Automatic annotation (TrEMBL):
This is HAD hydrolase. InterPro entries: HAD-like_hydrolase_domain, HAD-like_sf, HAD-SF_hydro_IA_REG-2-like_cap, HAD_sf. It comes from the Eukaryota. It holds the Pfam family Hydrolase. SUPFAM superfamilies: HAD-like. GO terms for cellular component: nucleus. It comes from Candidozyma auris (Yeast).
Amino acid sequence: MFRAFSRRLNTRGSSLISDPLKPDRIAKSQADSSFPKPRFVSFDLWGTLYTPKKPIAESYYEISKNEFGIDKSLESLKAEFPEVHKELLIDFPNYGKYSDHITNCKDWWSELIVKLYGLPHYSENEKSAKLCDRLVEYFSSSEAYILFDDVKPTLEKLRKNNVRIIASSNSDDRVFPIMKSLGIDRYFENPFVYISYDLGTEKPERAFFRSIAGELYKIDKANEPRLSMQEFLENSWHVGDSYEKDFVGAVKAGWNGVLIDRPKTSVFFRNGPQKASVSNDCFEAQSADSLDSDDMVMIANNRVVVSSLTEVLRLFELE
């Protein structure tokens, strides 16, 4: 049995009405015991589970220059890549999924590459086609990405405790070969990898989170006919490195949100963990054994900030 949990809210100097998710207005709280076993734990991918080994523009520069003899400066690639990427998303939204001109994600990235380098179209030029193939393949494997050290221990512990693990990412279908190459695909049972390319909506839109929750809710409700959506969402968790897309998006959709802040640069860690105190406020209770620590900051009932994924395990007493 999991113990009941209590919260100590310190609302002085903060507003929970006008903008409850603004960092400087979030009321801090503390949990003196763990949360119930989650229905599922959702993870963002890029920046949360894995990250590029080196800056994107640097990889483009090294491959194009060293392997194809293309003389385009690193500085120009750094400056132009974001612009070309933005323009292409406007011309062909969602990696060209709804375009008659682009038939798959690889073609979308190939369009970006030839436009970025000012090359002949890949459909008409062999060198262009080979460069596109090389860069797309590079960014679809562990050659380009590395896992954070806390990823596999966390996923392994969740799996051993029969916690459903899902991935929720704003990405195209390259995530599948990336996950396989990094050796983490085995933790995510098919079809529990949800990407914006397939869903047709992206984080932080509520439709993104609701689409996922709706599908998983049907699975659990089949075994628990009396289960309500509210009860289901109370034990649904999402972990990600983006404050707006992951943290705020999840909370506004009714999920529990966990912000992963490994370098501890967010306002939450700058303020430090909240200390237990005695108060006459009927909404406050002294906490002698808080979950708050140097690596975890509790924020209201469904918001947590951690510096390591292993801290997520502490929320559910799975250490």
